[in-house]
Amino acid sequence: MPTTPYDENDPVFALHQGGKLEVASTAPLRNREDLSLAYTPGVARVCTTIELHPETAYDLTWKSHVVAVVTDGSAVLGLGDIGPLASLPVMEGKAVLFKEFGGIDAVPICLDVTEVDDIVETVVRIAPGFGGINLEDISAPRCFEIERKLQERLDIPVFHDDQHGTAIVVLAALRNAARLTGRELSDLRVVVSGAGAAGVAVTTILREAGIGEIAVADRGGVLHGGRSGLTSVKSQLALDTNVGGRTGSLVDALSGADVFIGVSGGTVPEEAIAAMAPEAIVFALANPHPEVHPDVALRHARVVATGRSDYPNQINNVLAFPGVFRGALSVRATSVTEGMKLAAAEALAAVVVDELAEDRVVPSPFDPRVAPAVAAAVAAAARRDGVARL
Prior knowledge:
390 residues, Rossmann fold, 2 domains
């Protein structure tokens, strides 16, 4: 009798047996009349209506509430480049989160291609069947170009969650941490560890929100105009940040800093956290192993957040993307603007603004107020920014 290469009694594997998704029909098929309405000949009338009036596809198909979750499997969780097949359980999980927290149907699309233009062309060709595209676990720097090219070619929301979902939740948490410590965003000096997808997006949204000063570090130290060998993305980051002209290592940059945001993995020594400013804020978001253990960080910082669910203040993208897509789809937005992302962060922060504590600067993913609040703010921002069709 053949055995499986995994323990079937392990609850993780037991839950994944057969996958986490299924397709359920909303149309009854009880008799010949039902069949003629749901399929031929009745469906032909719907098809011709959509042909003549394409906008009716949002009313007459699932397009208004379905998202493609697209990956090439090149940067999956903390596992790295494991390929499209091995990434499927994660994409299924993402679809489950879309449905559970946003009421949105989502379809995992795992592409066996890695070239930027191949991915773009494939997504463009499947896009007519979807109301939005959620890019997932695609490695930097290709993810930036893929998102940009898709945004240029499609008239539906395109959202790389590893970038913008993380950035929205970080900004929300930082707004509340600043409030808790009696400061404004403009008062804060921030050091970001990581210049990949999340690091770039976090830095961008914090600058848009009016952060005081921000510097970004990678394995080679702080990004600055005098460093050679930087990619085009890092060169632009060096130009856009570090107004203080800081050089040296991440540890050097943390001396006197108000905020540390880790989105790169690696480790930060306790003495570097101890050298930060009073009332420091530490977001050590590498998962499952934070850059500095939260118990260690709490010896020196006022507010600590991680990416883990077993510690308070979890910076979890599920706080953002269901509401962002729900809001964007509700007004048939053609894109997700910077204004929509900022509005999402403000709405998310406001959910718990009257309940702030050191261990509560963001709401729980299970707080039923989250997705509706984010969705309403995103929809309103889409109308303000002129990208709403409703």
